[in-house]
Amino acid sequence: MSTTPDDVTAVPFSQQLRDATAGAHHAAERAPFVSDLLEGRLPQDDFRRLVVQLHAVYGVLEEAVEASTDPVIAPLLRRELDRTTALAHDLEHLAGADWATAATVLPATETYCDRLRDVCFTWSGGLVAHHYTRYLGDLSGGQVLGRIVQRVFELPDGLGTAAYRFDDIASPKRFKDEYRALLDALPYDTEERARIAAEANVAFDCSRALFDDLSRTRVVNR
Fold it and tell me: Which CATH number belongs to the domain containing residue 57 in this structure?
């Protein structure tokens, strides 16, 4: 049965995004680098390299959040989600105070950051797409990943995993529910929803490419 535009718009936007990105999301989560990290097969230096890439990505994303002047999406852009400072603290623990002098940003990460610059500063829907993919992931699977990394690398008192802690968010589940409700309330038509969903798939593809680049350049037998 064909679906009319009204039928599509009646579907909650958060559900549309989840359904439309399921395949790309699954592929990113199942990247070999992620599997090796979760199963304790990576040296800590490879985890540090991941944190370097994430610091670059969140740096650009949070510049876009800071620059946004669109009141429609303002309720989504909660600054307690910001991760750049926490990632820098993690790198100070993992690599020392001068970590930035030796940090190597990989080509896939540069491509990811370029995409963020291309869409997030000039298109509110693009910012929504990348904001959704990163921060809801941090509040979901990221919580599991943080605990595993802390245990595998025996990091004391959470040092090195600050980016996975959201001290200003009392209940990640309640926060995610509120975030999805805000997504559902965005006044986007069917065409714009589809554009945002397509960009969210690009975001997941960028994450997968980042993980693949880390795998190609990973530290072996250190």
Answer: 1.20.910.10
